[in-house]
Structure formats: C-alpha cells, structure tokens
Amino acid sequence: MTDKAADGPAGLYGGVSLGLGVIGLVCLALYAFGVAPLAFALGPLAVTFGILGLVSGINRAKSAAGLLAGVVPTVLLLLLPFGVAPL
What we know:
Elements: H1 4-7, H2 13-29, H3 36-56, H4 60-79
Helix pairs in contact: 2-3, 2-4, 3-4
Keywords: Membrane, Transmembrane, Transmembrane helix
Transmembrane segments: 12-33, 39-58, 65-84
Protein name: DUF4190 domain-containing protein
C-alpha cells in the first residue's frame, strides 16, 4: 500500500532535484564544449527543488543529494571568473 502524500507533486521534488543536479554536474564536466550556461540554469533549479523536497519531508535523501548536486555547479560557475574554481 502506498502513502497518498508520496503520490502528489511533492513526492517528485527529490527525484527532479537529483535529476537536474546530475545533469548540471555533467554539463559542468563538459565545460570545454560550451554547455556551462545550461549548468548555470539547471543548478539553481536543482537547489530550489531540493529545498522544496526537504521542506515537504518526502524523499529527503534524494532531495538532499539533489540540493548538493545543484549547489556544486552553481558555486563553481560563480567562482570561475575570479580564478578560484579549478576548471
């Protein structure tokens, strides 16, 4: 038997956050091919969905992993112009 709370949109926040975060990390790894703007767009989205997932309390592990995976490309791309990020 499934929990009705996990069937709603709030149950998808963790998976969406993790998916966007991983895609953002892959785009960051492909920095030399010019897909960094996509990573810069997907990173904050992953952070947003990760926070929403942590607040909703459903799939907290996926939400936390997605939050971390979204923070990494966002912070690295913000620090890159200052010569701090090692890319």
